[in-house]
Specification:
Butyryl-Coa Dehydrogenase, subunit A, domain 1, 13 helices, alpha+beta, about 45% helix, Butyryl-CoA Dehydrogenase, subunit A, domain 2, about 400 residues, binds flavin-adenine dinucleotide, 4-stranded antiparallel beta sheet
């Protein structure tokens, strides 16, 4: 069986690599691209990365899968996946939430006013969004969210708290889920709003994570939002949130960081001596590497299945759960292997001049657990597989 990409897809990959090579010549390239950076910490939060996003927009990479009527190119979603693969291979910012979750939902459900206001800005990479779903007591069970939206004049008065909002500290707009009908069943009374992030009633407090990914708590106090900024129908937000997740199946999990990490580990064992012998000659390390190489192939196949099912227009929920479960844990195993091979040197932080490979492995060891939490924890992926694939009874 041949899982390679087609001719047009391969041409597109060449185009993206050419674009990246051009960008690598810019003075600010070190801030934009850093293959040693952990993937979860690549945010468009610096002037250099914002400039890079605008260059991507000029190249026509924003909204490729959007309908032509909204400035897109109606290209299959796989091109957005291929773009993100190449970007994450070099540690550059990805196309982001504006093109995916926000843009796709506005195109399908937004009012003409919201489309006219936001879609052109997204296509030009002039606007950043933060996604406000999770709350202190609503993460895995997101439909339990409580942030209150009460009717007030021609709009809504919002009060409550969000947790783990990535990008809140530099985003322009907040894509926020709130409870508009507390009497309705929990999946039914949720609505989506767009709020300007600089509203005086919004307070943002950073949360530092183990892996140096900055996320935030966000407090919403008496924030009034007009009906114009309600997305789609009132109380239909849960449907939009689920749909947006389906759209993002193409762009969720890039494989290249895993592959790059494995290649770097190969480089490490070939170039590192211990007691005058190369690590690559150590039988235990060779055995571990052979196992990891096989697991890498498995991760690649699981990921290609997600793309294959999505490209047929089906929702790959089981395939995506299997892929996320396996590849995020493999990321952790790779980092652990590198730490084991390096011994005490592996503990050196990236700020230490003696840290092997710029401290990549110690950082990776701290950062990879985050991927097993965001976008649905490992346990939730297992529940999906148990319920949908194995048809085991529902968890209680
Ligand atoms: C780095 C990072 C960035 C994030 N960015 C964003 C963001 O931008 N916007 C946003 O809205 N959210 C964001 N999140 C939040 C993320 O989606 C949640 O952390 C995640 O959904 C888990 O929710 P929780 O933290 O409340 O944990 P909980 O849901 O409370 O889970 C706690 C533990 O219980 C387990 N558990 C829960 N339910 C079950 C069950 N039914 N069966 C078995 N085990 C279960 C979980 O697996 C976990 O181990 C981010 C999180 C991280 C770590």
């Amino acid at each position: 069986m041949n899982f390679d990409f087609g001719v047009e897809e391969q041409q597109f990959i060449v185009d993206v690599r050419q674009f990246i090579a051009e960008q690598a010549c810019h003075d600010d390239a070190d801030d934009v691209m850093n293959p040693n950076r952990e993937s979860d910490s690549i945010l468009s939060d610096t002037p250099a990365r914002k400039r890079f996003n605008k260059a991507m927009a000029q190249r026509g990479y924003m909204g490729m899968s959007w309908p032509e009527a909204y400035g897109g190119k109606a290209m299959p979603g796989i091109y957005e996946y291929l773009l993100n693969e190449e970007l994450s291979r070099v540690g550059a910012p990805l196309i982001g939430k504006g093109v995916g979750c926000v843009g796709q939902t506005l195109i399908r459900h937004g009012s003409e006013k919201l489309k006219a206001e936001f879609l052109p800005q997204i296509l030009k990479a002039e606007v950043e969004f933060a996604l406000g779903y999770t709350e202190p007591s609503a993460g895995s069970d997101l439909a339990s969210l409580k942030l209150k939206a009460e009717r007030s004049g021609n709009g809504w008065l919002l009060n409550g708290q969000k947790m783990f909002t990535t990008s809140a500290h530099f985003a322009d707009w907040y894509w926020l889920a709130a409870r508009t009908d507390p009497q309705a069943k929990k999946h039914k009374g949720i609505s989506l709003f767009l709020l300007p992030m600089n509203h005086p009633g919004i307070t943002i407090t950073p949360i530092e994570t183990l892996g140096e990914h900055v996320t935030n708590q966000v407090f919403i106090d008496d924030v009034w939002v007009s009906d114009d900024y309600l997305v789609g129908e009132c109380n239909n937000g849960w449907r939009y949130i689920c749909e947006a997740l389906d759209y993002e199946r193409f762009t969720f999990y890039t494989f290249s960081p895993l592959e790059e990490k494995f290649n770097k580990l190969m480089q490490l064992i070939k170039n590192t001596d211990r007691d005058g012998v190369k690590l690559a000659e150590d039988p235990c390390i060779r055995r571990d590497m052979a196992r990891l190489a096989t697991e890498l192939e498995t991760a690649k196949m699981l990921q290609r299945r997600v793309i294959y099912v999505a490209s047929k227009g089906e929702v790959p929920s089981i395939e995506a759960a299997e892929c996320k479960l396996y590849s995020t844990e493999l990321h952790q195993r790779l980092s652990q292997a590198a730490m084991n091979f390096l011994g005490e040197q592996g503990l050196l932080h990236k700020d230490d001049a003696d840290a092997p490979m710029g401290g990549k492995w110690e950082w990776s060891y701290r950062a990879t657990p985050l991927d097993t939490i965001g976008a649905g924890t490992t346990e939730i992926q297992k529940n999906i597989i148990a319920r949908k694939k194995l048809e085991l009874p529902l968890e209680y």
